[in-house]
Amino acid sequence: MNLDALNWLIKSIISNFKCWNCSSWAWTKDINIKNIEWKSVLIDIICPSCWKSSLIKSEVVSLDLNKLNLSQKQLDLIKKSIDKNNTNKINNKNKMENLPITDNLIVELNNDLKKDKISVSDLFSNEEK
Q: 92 is in which domain, residue-wise?
């Protein structure tokens, strides 16, 4: 798998992937590449909210757009369309993630921590248990 295809795949994942468990968005830091072969890659995504793991196997299929007899203008239009679509999704995701912290969010976090018998101070502790 070439680097451009891998970069495109990562961008596509962060702009489209939502956790199957809690519907949270994934970030680049949440993506772990487990295996890369000639035309396939195995990726593990750890949800930043609920810590559930999702495995994705992707295969790259090469498509030679030159064989479609497209003009350079048409090729540029396709590329701009793909880039714009991904950029819009990433920007929308960033807007959603930068919302202020509300009282309801704090109460929800507190309830989730209690379910797992974790205190807020445990989150900031540097000691290994």
A: 66-120
Report if residue 51 sits inside a domain.
Answer: yes
Q: Which residues are paired to 56 by β-bridges?
A: 43
Asked if residues 13 and 34 have their Cβ atoms less than 8 Å apart, the reply is: no
d(CA 55, CA 104): 31
Number of domains in the chain: 2
Burial grade of 1 (CB within 10 A; 0-12, 13-18, 19 or more): middle
Residue type, 120: V
Element (H, E) at 122: helix 120-123
Kindly report the number of other CB atoms within 10 A of residue 6's CB atom: 16
pLDDT one-digit tens code per residue, 75-92: 777 777 766 666 665 556
CB 46 within 8 A of CB 13: no
- The HSE-up count of residue 100 (CA atoms within 13 Å, CB side) is 2
125, part of any domain? no
**pLDDT tens sequence across 46-105:** 999 999 999 988 887 666 666 777 788 887 777 777 666 666 655 565 555 666 666 776
